[in-house]
Amino acid sequence: MGEHITVDAAQGLPVLAARCDTASSALCAPTPAAGGPLDQATTVAVSEIHQLVGSALAAFAGRASDTASATRAAATSYIGTDGDAGNNIAAIGQTIGG
User: Fold this and answer.
1) In Å, how far are 1, 11, 78 from 70, measured between CA atoms?
2) What's the gap between Cα 85 and its chain centre?
3) What pTM, to 2 d.p., does this model score?
């Protein structure tokens, strides 16, 4: 007993959310593959790889953006819970002392 987890929702979680936003915006689509003869297998292969990389980047960007949103929501929840708990403890103190 007496052990607890400390969460600095006012500073730590918003920083994490901002970093996730930065990561999300940094993940952009790759530059298009240089054109080549469309009848060459290598041109088709490089084009397909670029499409796959673009899809993967979009998925990572979406995940980072979702994580940022969830982190902001968690920060709001932690701050509200801490405020409510403080008010409840204060009310108990007033009941006992008054």
Assistant:
1) 30, 15, 12
2) 27
3) 0.67
Q: What contacts 21, CB < 8 A, 6 or more positions away?
A: 64, 65, 68
What DSSP letter does each residue of 59-95 carry, written as one string?
Answer: HHHHHHHHHHHHHHHHHHHHHHHHHHHHHHHHHHHHH
Whole-angstrom Cα distance, residue 96 to residue 93? 5
pLDDT tens series, the chain, 98 aa: 567 666 566 788 888 899 999 999 998 766 776 677 777 888 888 888 888 988 999 999 999 999 999 999 988 888 888 777 777 777 787 777 65
Return left, alpha or beta for 5; rule: phi > 0 is left, psi -120 to 50 is alpha, else beta. beta
Q: Give dist(CA 1, CA 14) in Å, integer.
A: 30
What distance in Å separates the CA atoms of residue 76 and residue 31, rounded to the nearest whole number? 38
